[in-house]
Design brief:
With 128 residues, this protein is mainly alpha-helical. The chain is 66% helix and 0% strand. Helix 1 runs antiparallel to helix 4 and helix 2 packs across helix 3.
């Protein structure tokens, strides 16, 4: 049963394993090591200044033993769609008026630039 396997994986993955174990594992995989050992993962954690929790690392490794990381990520992405991510969505309605208000300011700047150019043509500037 995929559901019970996934449930077991989630409980070990999120509650027993720490994020540093998961991150170190994925860094090893991204670096080309398709099946990082405990020693490999520990090296990454300690290189980053972290401490290895052997029990959590062992639990994590046993939970993913024999599983392909790409399949685990793909399965996780399908599951995340069913998780509510909160509401919000309102706001942002005042964004439409801002560009119109900026337009006159641009015209004023253009006039200033033209005036300064005229001063330069006459041989003097504002701060001469």
């Amino acid at each position: 049963s995929t559901q019970s396997t996934w449930g077991h994986f989630l409980s070990v993955y999120f509650f027993s394993a720490s994020m540093k174990n998961i991150a170190a594992y994925l860094l090893c995989v991204l670096g080309g090591n398709t099946s990082p050992s405990k020693k490999d993962i520990s090296k990454v954690i300690t290189a980053g200044g972290g401490e290895v929790d052997d029990d959590k690392l062992d639990a994590f490794l046993s939970a993913i033993d024999g599983k392909d990381v790409d399949e685990l990520i793909a399965e996780g992405l399908t599951k995340i769609g069913s998780v509510g991510m909160g509401g919000g969505g309102g706001g942002g309605s005042s964004g439409g008026a801002a560009p119109a208000a900026d337009a006159p300011a641009e015209k004023k700047e253009e006039k200033k630039v033209e005036e300064e150019e005229d001063d330069e043509e006459m041989g003097f500037g504002l701060f001469d």
